[in-house]
Design brief:
Elements: H1 33-63, H2 66-69, H3 71-90, H4 93-98, H5 103-128, H6 136-151, H7 161-188, H8 194-215, H9 223-302, H10 308-335, E1 344-346, H11 348-357, E2 367-371, H12 373-376, E3 380-382, H13 384-401, E4 408-417, E5 420-429, H14 461-471, E6 475-481, E7 484-492
Parallel strand pairs: 2-4
Antiparallel strand pairs: 1-3, 4-5, 5-7, 6-7
């Protein structure tokens, strides 16, 4: 900008002589001072918007983490910085604000900026266009473009940049044209980036065609060509930013899917470990609990003249084995949810008496039943088969772990669970040699108290009883006190 004062309104001719160390586009125009100030304000506002868009893109890419892992993001950031530096130089901002007292660097800023755009742009496109899988001549062309631009970096300092520009700039335009062809190839190969890469190359070609012929002296210089040169890279970087954002979304989706797959694999592994642990517990229980009855049966089979007592023990051993197998099968049905509830009206007093009568000879005489009047008249609807199984397990457990010949008491009475009316069935017995059970673990699968292993069992009876009670909408609680162990089965009316 030069200020020229005119003494009067007569026409004047003003001569401007330009000497430059670089390629230049000279568009001379005379302005009224107030008009120039207004035009400069608009230009600075547009330049601020342009550089703001570039800065926003730079912050966005630096904020995201893929650039730490992916080469293409780092090359794009370098390409973005080179374009910002070039725009600052082309518009004179470097000379005006950065190097106002250093014309040497201000003069060479644009030349170095142009070469930097070519170098970093070539490196980025070599990655984005997947040239590793393109034709060999395309790879050689891009490599030649890259090394020619690198070798030309000293040219501005040796005062022959205009000469090298006549080689570098047409080669850059040719490379952009070849990049557009490669983008079409990727598009045809169903590559998701093909369309955006083609758009980026076409916009770059528009900006290049608007300025390169002028810099080479083929077209007369006009200021709008400089604006076209700046808008071309802006559109290109917007298209490339969209491409990388799409790539980031795909990567995030892949990472999310990989995380989900890892969680599923971990859950599957935990389930497999749990199943193996379950099988280990099951086999351990089966091996331990079948050993005693099988020994009794083996002793009976090995005796030439078995006594009546041996016969009785053998039959009891067979019943124990049947009970273990039956309970294992019932647990499997419960875990597979194959047990269906079929509710019918139920006389709870008659049902308890029936279960008592089914106990082994000699055991029924140890059991005393007390039925409260409110329980006898209660309207209970339940599944008879499941309820028999629950009561059978509770009574069998009481008979087995009470001292030999000790009484077992069953009390049936109406009871509320919270605000819900129902029937409570209490099965009580004095503790035997096994001692008091652990109420916190008594319903665990395969759990048996340390002293309970003297009796044959599977550790499944109470577990089954609790699961079936819950299936019927009820509950079972264990109360262990000195001198008495009580299990309370509550069923809703």
């Amino acid at each position: 900008m030069f200020q020229v004062d005119f003494a009067d309104a007569r026409p004047r001719t003003v001569h401007v002589r330009l000497r430059t160390t670089s390629s230049s586009v000279l568009a001379v125009r005379a302005w009224q001072p107030r008009h120039f100030v207004a035009q400069a304000a608009r230009e600075y506002a547009l330049l601020g918007l342009l550089l703001g868009l570039f800065t926003a893109a730079l912050i966005t890419n630096l904020w995201q983490s893929p650039w730490r892992r992916e080469t293409i993001y780092r090359r794009y950031i370098a390409y973005l910085l080179a374009n910002m530096a070039n725009i600052i130089g082309v518009n004179g901002l470097a000379a005006e604000f950065l190097f106002p007292q250093s014309p040497f660097w201000a003069n060479h800023w644009v030349s170095l900026g142009t070469l930097s755009v070519i170098i970093f742009g070539t490196r980025f496109y070599m990655e984005a266009l997947d040239l590793a899988h393109a034709q060999a001549w395309m790879r050689w062309l891009y490599r030649m473009q890259l090394w020619v631009a690198v070798l030309c970096l000293p040219a501005p300092f040796l005062d022959f940049y205009p000469e090298v520009a006549r080689v570098v700039l047409p080669l850059a335009s040719l490379t952009l044209l070849i990049g557009a062809v490669r983008s079409v190839q990727l598009w045809r190969q169903k590559n998701a980036n093909g369309k955006l890469l083609l758009l980026a190359h076409l916009l770059s070609l528009v900006g290049s065609v608007s300025v390169v012929p002028t810099l080479l002296g083929l077209f007369p210089g006009q200021l709008w060509l400089i604006y076209g040169f700046q808008l071309g890279p802006l559109g290109t970087l917007v298209a490339l930013q969209l491409m990388l954002s799409q790539r980031t979304r795909v990567m995030q989706a892949q990472l999310l899917q990989a995380s989900l797959d890892a969680e599923i694999a971990e859950a599957t592994a935990r389930q497999e470990r749990a199943e193996r642990e379950h099988q280990r517990h099951f086999l351990s229980m089966l091996t331990h609990e079948l050993r005693t009855p099988l020994s009794v049966i083996r002793m009976r089979l090995g005796a030439q003249e078995p006594t009546l007592r041996m016969q009785s023990h053998a039959r009891q051993a067979v019943r124990d084995i049947d009970a273990i197998v039956e309970r294992c099968a019932l647990v499997s049905q419960l875990e597979d949810k194959a047990t269906q509830v079929q509710r019918v009206p139920c006389d709870i007093g008659a049902l308890v008496a029936e279960v008592i009568a089914l106990q082994p000879p000699g055991a029924a005489g140890r059991i005393s039943l007390r039925l409260a009047p409110d329980a006898a008249s209660a309207s209970l609807s339940s599944d008879l088969l499941l309820l028999r199984t629950i009561l059978g397990n509770l009574i069998d457990n009481a008979l087995k772990y009470a001292p030999q010949g000790a009484p077992v008491r069953i009390d049936v009475a109406a009871a509320h669970h919270g605000e819900r009316p129902g029937v409570a069935i209490q099965v009580s017995n004095p503790p035997g040699v096994a001692g008091l059970p652990d109420p916190a673990r008594i319903f665990e699968k395969y759990y048996r108290a340390p002293g309970a292993h003297q009796q044959s069992g599977s550790g499944l009876g109470l577990h089954i009883a609790q699961a079936l009670a819950q299936r019927l909408g009820g509950s079972i609680e264990c109360h262990a006190e000195p001198g008495v162990v009580t299990f309370v089965l509550w069923l809703p009316l």
